[in-house]
Structure formats: C-alpha cells, structure tokens
Amino acid sequence: MPEKEKDKDKEKKKKRKPSKPAIVLAGDEYDTQVAPSLNQNVKVFNELRAFERAYTRGPQLGLGAFAKVFMGTHKASGQEYAIKKIDRSKMVWGDRDALEDEINNLILVRDGPNIVQLYEVYEEKSHCFLVMGLLRGGELFDRILEQKTFTEPQARGCCRGLLTGLAYMHAKRVAHRDLKPENLLLMDHQNSISEDTIADQIKLADFGFAKKVKTENGCRTLCGTPGYLAPEILERFPAYDTKCDLWSVGVIIFLLLGGYLPFEDEDEDRVFEKTREGQYYFHPTYWKSISAEAKQFVTHLLTVNPRKRFSSEEALKATWMTSRRLDNGMSEHHEEGLYNTALQQNIKKGKQKGLAAVEAGDNRLAVLDEKFNGFLERTGADGNAARVKKDDGEKKPRQPKFVEDSAAGRPFSEFYDLGDILGEGGYACVYRAMHKRTKEIYAVKDIDTSMLESSSMNALQDEIAALKLLRGGPYIIRLFDVFQEPDHTFMVMEECRGGDLLTRVTEKEFYTEREARKTCKILFQAMDYIHKKKVAHRDIKPENVLMVEADDDHSIKIADFGFAKRVFKPNCLRTLCGTAQYVAPEVLDLHSPGYDHRADMWSVGVVVYILLGGYAPFEGPVHELAQVICKGDYCFHEKYWGEISNEAKDMISNLLQVYAEHRLSAEEALQCPWMAMEEEALTTKDLSGAKAVLQERQTQKAGDDQAYGIKQLDKHTSLDISFTAGLGSLEEVANRKTQITAQTQQGAMATIGEDGEEEGEEIYDSSSGRQCDELYTWGRVIEQGDFFTLREARHNQLNEIVSIKCVKRTDLESGDAVALQDEISTLSLLVDCEYIARLVDVFEEPDFTYVVMERLRGGELIDRLSEKKYYTENEARVVIKKLLCALEYCHNRRIANRNIKTETIQLIQKGSITDVKLTDFGMAKRVLIPNGLQTQCGTEGYVAPEILEHRPEYDVQCDMWSLGVVMYMLLGGYRPFRGDGDEIIRKIRYGEYKFHKRYWNEISEEAKILISRMLTLEPIGRITATAALHSDWIAVLEDEEYLRQIEEEDRMYNRQNGHAKVRAATYVIMAARRLELLAGVR
Predict the structure, then answer these.
(1) What are 481-523's pLDDT values in tens digits?
(2) Distance between CA atoms of 236 and 634, rounded to whole angstroms?
(3) pTM summary value
(4) Do residues 890 and 899 make contact, with C-beta atoms less than 8 angstroms apart?
(5) Counting CB atoms within 10 angstroms of each CB, which of 285, 590, 684, 997 has the fewest?
(6) Which CATH class is domain 1-134?
(7) Fold held by 405-493
C-alpha cells in the first residue's frame, strides 16, 4: 500500500516530476577502473548491463520484499561491496517514489558516522543496483548471541554508535523510521567487542523507510516494525518527526539490557496497545543488576510524548552516557542463562516474522496499515473516529438504565431475592441480592431501624442523602434505590466483588510508583467530586476503598458513607469521628471551632503514604496516637522512601499539613507536580518493598477478620477511652459528643458517643436556602438533552425570566456527572464577565440538580449567520473582540471552554447582530498545571488538533483554534474544515484549509493573518487571547467614529430584518448543527 502522504495526492502522481538527486551522472569520461569510494561523488549509470560489466556477483547476504543483497566484487580493482538489487517490476508507483527517496537520503547522510555508505547506482528498466559499503561483521545481535555474554558498558557503546549516527541524520532532518536489530550491522568480525570498539563498528543500514522531514511533524506515513515503532506513528492520521527514531533506540537498548522486548506480546493488538500507552516493566529477574542510570535513560527514550522525549543530542549528554565508570553488570543473567536465553528467543522470533513476510511477498506498509486499522476497529482505541457520536438531528431523552422500584410504593421483597450475607452488624446486614425481573446482582444493606436511636437514624438519613447527591460521581459507590419501610430501610447499591484497595495492590505482578500514582489519581478524582458537592466523607481509609472487579484497576470505588455529612459552611462539623490512624488533627482538637471536608484530604494523605511506603505514617500505642497526629509527627524513612520521587514526598507533605488551610485540596492534588510527571519517569521506581510490607499487613488483617468472624457494620457501640485520653479531660471529650472508631495496630475496634452536628432544615446550594420549585414558576421547554431538560422559568418575586437546566441524577453516568460539576464550578468563577452567560443560582436537591442561568433571547449565532449569509468585517470584528474578551477572562483564570462553536455563542436580544455572549460550559475545565488537560472532547470541525492525539496533553490554547474556526465562518460564510468524518479530522490534524479567492478577495490581510495565527497547528505558536486583542485587525475598534458606524449598520439591519438570501455555502454552515461530538470521559 502506498504511503498515506502520497495517497492524498494520487490524482497528481502522473504530473509529478522526479526530483534530481544530489548525484553525478556517469559519462564516457568516468574511469570505471577506479574503485568507488567516499572521495568521489555518487555515480549513476543508466546504460544497459553496465552493472554486469563492472561487478562480479558473490554470495547472497540478505533478502527483502523487493530486494536481494549480495556481495559484489569490483572487477577492475578487486574491492568487495554489498550490492542491493531492487526488482522494480514488482513496485507500484508509491514504491518507486520510496526508492527514489531512499537513494536521495543515503546520499544526504553518506558522510555521517555510523551510517552505511552508498557509492554507485545502476538503473535498468526492471532492476536497480545500489553499491554500498560491505559490512563484514554481520548483524549486531548475531554477534551477541555468538559471544553469549554482553555487558552494560557494551550496551552503552552500542547506544553511543546509534545515537552518533542519528544525531548526524537528524541534523540533516532525515528520519530513519525503521530502526530494529536486523538493521544494525558491524563493520568487521572481531573476536571481542569492547565499549569503544562497538561504538565505532556499528552502522545503521536499510534506509527503505527513511524520509527527509521538510516541516515540523511532517511525516504522515504509518510505517516501521510493530514493537519498535513510536506511539505517535500509531495514529489514524499520524504527524510526527525525527524523534520517532529515539523511541526505537529505547526499545533496542531495553532489549540489549533486559534480554526481552518491552512491548512484546503474542497478540499483536496488545503490542499496539502497550506501545500507545507506553506500558512496559523492568522485570526484577532481568534488571536487578542494571544500573539505575541505565533504567532512567531508557525511560527518557520510551517517553510517549515526543516533545518530552530525549533528542539524539540530549541522549548523548545523559548521565548514563557520560559516566566515566560503569560496572559490567548483567553477570547474574549469564550465570543463570536467563538473559541469553530470552535474548536468543526474541531475536529468532523477530527474524522468523521478517522472513515469513518476505516469503509471502507482503507489502510491509499495506500489511501494517491493515493490522493497525483492524486494531482500531476491534478495540475502539481510535479517539478520532471510534468515539464520534452520530447525531441524527433529533434530541431523544436517553432511556434510564435503572428504574427506581421504590417509587411504586410496594415492599422491597416484591422486587428482590436476598442471597448470601456479605457483612453483618448489630442492626444492619448486607446481602447479595438479585432483581427478580432483570436478574441483575446488587448489594443490599438491610438496616433494622426499629433498633436505632435518634442520632443513628439521623446518621442513616445523612448517608442516604449523601449517596443520592453523589450518584454518577466518578469512582464512588452507587446507590440505586432506597426502600424505607416501617421497621427496615433497604439500600440497593452496586456490589464490589474485588476486595479492598490494599488487597489489589498486593496481588499486582509489578508495583511501581507509576501504578501507585494511577490509584492516587482515582482517589483524588473521587474526592474532588465529593467535595465539590459539599460532602465530607469523614472515614477515608484503605478498607473503604473497594474494587468492583478484582482484576480491573479502574473499578475502584469509595464506599461506606456512614459518617458522611453535608458541609453547608466552613468548619460547621463538630463530631469526633473517623478511624484513629487516619483522622485529621482538627477533628481531634477539642478547642477548635470545628472542621469541614478538608479533613478528608488528611486521611487521603495517610492512604497515599501507605500506598507508597507500605506502612502508616502515624503508629504507636493507641493512648499516644492522638497526640502524634495532632503534632503531625511523621517522617520518610530512607529504607522505604529512598527510591521514591521527591515530587511524591512533597505532595504527601502538603496533604499532611496540620493546619487545614495549608492543606492541598483534591483539585490541587490532581494537578500537583507529581501528577504532572511523565509516567515513564515513574516506571523505574520499584515499590516491591512497600508491597511486601502491605502483604504482611494483609495477612495479619486476614487473621484478625477470621477471628472476628464477619465484617462489622456498626459504628455506634461503645466508648474507647484509651484513644481519646490524650486529647483532654474526660469531661472535655464528653462535651464534644464524640463518636469515633479507634483502630489500634492490633486491629481492635471501638466507637463512642452521639452525633454532635447542628440539626436543622435541609440545606440547598441556593443562597435563599429554599427549593427551586418554591422560587420559580416553570415555562416552556427550550431544549431536551441526553440527561437534562432546559426550561424557561420566571422568578416568583423578582419577575426575572431565566433558563434552568434540570438534571435528574438518578441515572447520571460518570462522565456526565463530572461535566455537570465542572460546568457549575467554572461558571461560578466567571459571573463577573459581561461577555459570558451569567450563572444565577444552583440547587442541589435529593434527586435533581438545577442550574439557573440568565436568559438570552437572541438565539444562536449560527442562526443569525444563516440569515445574513455572512458578517461584514466591521460586524465580525465587534463579535470576535467580545469573544476574545470572554476567552481572556477565562484563560486568566486557567479555564478552558473546550467547546466553542457558533451554536454555543448566543445573541442577547432578538434582532441583535453583534451583542453576543459565550454560553455552554459543559466541557469546561480548570487547568492548574501547563498542558494538564488529557480528555478528547469538543465538536467535530471546531476541535483543536492537539486534542485529537490518542493521548492528548493540552491547555487553554485549544479555545483559540476553535475561535479561529468561528471567525473564518463569520467572514467566509463556510467552515474551513469540511468533509465527512475522517476527512474533517485529517484536515484538522494537518491544518489543511484555504482562503478561497471567490469568498476572501474582499477580506483584509489583517483578518486573514489573525485567522492563520489562531489556526496554527502547534499550540505554543498559536496566538493568545490577550495578544489577539492587541492585533492590528482588532485595534481598529479603538476608533470612536468607527464604532458609530457599526451602531448605524446594526440599526439598518434591524430595519431590514435580514431580507438578503442565503448563498449556497450557508447550507454548509447549517449542517454544523448536526455535527458529531467527540465523546470521551470529560
């Protein structure tokens, strides 16, 4: 299959003129008696049988799909060379172009070190002969297998040779694109290969996929060898640069040091998946004798983001490459035979695959393309196409996945059959239960309310209220239904069958800081949602972090909301509750004014400490534990924390702050430096020591549980004087109305007291403290979405007309729940911007969330654009300036909208042309660290190219691209990126758009320059909102006379009321209303 960058121009192929290589055509004056060398220019012979007259054929050295390599002897001089004979008769047009590129690239880099040299080219009708330097040492890996020993210094020498050659190539902007063991050859067959010798001996060969990269990220072809090719190549529409070669070097060095391939798998789909995610491990069996510097070096090469990957020059200056002294290493491998056996198997396997492909006559590009596209289809891994949601133009309410049977008013027993007991207490029991109609399995908590005192009943109602409020939240156990009967309450929840968090950690085959961080990120995301809903959990600990499935790391759920409470104002909580080793200092401070949800982040800090270190930060006799916690007395013991990154320890220190106001919030923790570190940098941080300690703890805990019998559910049974004794006098503790679960190191449990929080009316987020229905009278439905209804409403007292988004949380999915909360959070920060639709109020009620917004009556900008055909420059200038002001306000607060389009820009009043406001922040997100956004979202046709990468990392500048699309539409009357599905995405990825003369002749150069600066592929080079406001095109608006002219045009339009007809291009604009949304988890 031809290369994709040539496919897109295949209509022009016949007109293509072959580029002239930097060679000399051999004439009659050329002396064929002189042996070819580097002292001469590359000669090209076009005469029939010229090669046969000059050379004698020798034994075959290698075989490819279109070529054979054999030894040739120059007849006149007796010099021996390697001859590559290419069968042109088997080639299609694209292959012939590739041959021309190969020759040109070999000529371009022939003077470089560690690169095979091209001397002559013989072109015949059906064949082409390339005369190159003969490398008698054969393939590098064959020599390694012959020697049966290979040291870390030798691996470094090999790496130095590779990098030296690549540095020369990349300086010439040539990418090899197919580095692998078979393409690394040695000049001579020497008895031994030292570090220095191998660095000089190694040569890069086979430039069949090499390419001159003329522009940044100018490579577009899916090519290379699975297992060695870089993740940026594995895109439906790749755009990459010379750094793809550094990834391949990383794979080769990994293989040299460890004896196995980092992404090897029998299933080729898994090879693609592992490569795209950078998923590899340093198996201790093979890597225990390899230096930490070597492993760190490999991770800098196997970094998924090419912008953060080592360049060849940076790699040559790395610590591992420049260190004077380096132990031989790997001796233990060879003594056991493990290393050599693994290496031999992997090399043979690679050769067998290559030989099979050659014998089958397969076109490597076509085969790779077919395999990768099959992978995308089978796995749904294509974020650019597979996640696109088709919209047929009709808004249909999504059918709920779960129906609340309790609404029918019939008893629980009519709907469910109870099964095994999962947990038991004095007044509660958890069963596995099956729904009689659907046969779905749930966990049901049966509480005997006849036995509860008033304080316990209040705690139960708080638990139910919190779980209802948090429905759909990420990584939070879901409450599906509640049956409240005279003497019993039944809570129907999802069942967690995978045990608790620490059990999962101890069962992992590999446990590194990378794995620990993934778990911590999930905890932070859950806590961020919980706290933004103004709920304090108050009992975060590993035992309350459960797994829905034992083998799924993403099925983590925060559970047990028995102490949960709404936080309606700062420090409004007074109850002394939680688990001894995890409880925050302010909870224990009897003289403090109170505490709030920030106490949870202390507990999260303790959990993170345990995950990384393997033990709790606060330990000791139970009667001293409270004082130790209040002082924040802990340390990072070198034995367990020496290898852990400083960024992780800094984050823990910022979580375990004694004063809550200095403590990290969940949102801040999600975007702290530790979370911003490249995953690959954490791969070398082995936590097997921590895992061993955790396994000990789990074994001890299992014994305690066996002795105890079954999981205890009650939290309100007795007073533990020993733990609270260190807090103050018995009278002081009693006055606090304490309620605490004290868990000693031996696992003994006890609890005390009653709930001491203020009781009162139910609190909502509205400033009035009343429910939405009490304040507003409902009007017409404006829009029906997947999980919301947008309605008009009138304030009963102020008579103000507003828009209210009504969201039923009963069946809300995680992505939608997070998006809704992010929308509320970001809009609350933007209420003072006059160019953004104002958030009026928010009501969080048991089953619904109501978001009250100012009502804009002018309709969507796209409708006005359809009426007018297009905007004049004067009108567009005013609109764009207002939108730039809105974006500047957002971006100064580090908020990215991520879904700017003509449908989300609304006019304030009917008949208005330029009075616009930015609306719809459903995909908005706050970005606290550079390039902290990683979700694929937006609207097709408007979405920025950096969002379309399979593992994106982007920032607020994505909005400037979308605004550039809007500005293009206002002035041109059509979208810059048009087509169907993949075609639109391809054009965006490559920034392919034009200013067609028919529509743009009358538009000023200043306007086109500003659009071009907005539609710049690389975000770092894209104009900012602030800079755009100072651009020449916008600066015209400072002229008062000009502003009066705009106002007059606005009045004229209102009188004419848009009588002009819409030109043909407008139909393309109207089609934007049916554009596809990129789904993704928001």
Answers:
(1) 999 999 999 999 999 988 888 887 887 767 888 889 999 999 9
(2) 50
(3) 0.83
(4) no
(5) 997
(6) alpha beta
(7) Phosphorylase Kinase; domain 1 (3.30.200)
